Amino acid sequence: MFEAADFPAPVVSFGDTFLKAIEGSLDPSLQRIAGKYIVHYDFGAALGNASQGNFIMGESRQFLEFNVRKRFTNNFGETRMHIMQQCLTPYRVALALSKGNPLTGPFSEAIQRLVEAGLSKKWLRDELDAIARLSEVSEKASSKPWTLDQLQGAFFAYGAVSLIACVTFGLERTMRRSPRIRRFVYA
Predict the structure, then answer these.
(1) Is 127 helix (H, G, I), strand (E, B) or coil?
(2) Whole domain around residue 164: which residue ranges?
(3) Residues 72 and 79: beta-carbon distance below 8 Å
(4) pTM, two decimal places
C-alpha cells in the first residue's frame, strides 16, 4: 500500500465507493492515495491505461483478477498486470432478503457452511482458471522470515545434539577420574 501511495500515477476506479471509504481512513498512506484518486467511467480505457502504467487500478480483488486473466494474460499464463496482496478496503459481498423471510435462517446456515468449507474461494479460483491460468513464475524472489513452527525441527535437532554432547562430556569426565580406566587408556 505504501508503494501505491508513493507512486506518482493516480489511483482510478469505477465510481466513488472506494474513494469514500479511504477518505475516512486515518492511515496517512490511504490519505495520500485519496488525494490523487480519480473516478473513471470508461471501462476499456481505464484498464488499458492501468496495464500501460498510467494509472493504478483500485477495484475489488475478484474484479481485478477476472479482468487481468481475461484481458491481459497471454497463452503462456504471463500477464502485464500485478495485483497487490494487500487490499485497500476489506469489502465483502452479502445477500439481502426481506425481513421475516422464512428462508433467512436456512440460507444463512448454508452460506456459512460454504464459506467455512472454503468452497467460495475454490469456486472463484476454478472460474478464474477457466478464463486463463496465470504462470507460477514470480517477478522477483522475495524472502519471508521463518516462523517458529518451521524451525521446530532444527530446535529439536539442536536439543538432541546438545543432550548427546552433555552425556559424552559427563562420561569423559567420569572415565578420566577412574583409576582402572586411567591405567588402561594412559598406560
Answers:
(1) helix
(2) 152-185
(3) yes
(4) 0.47
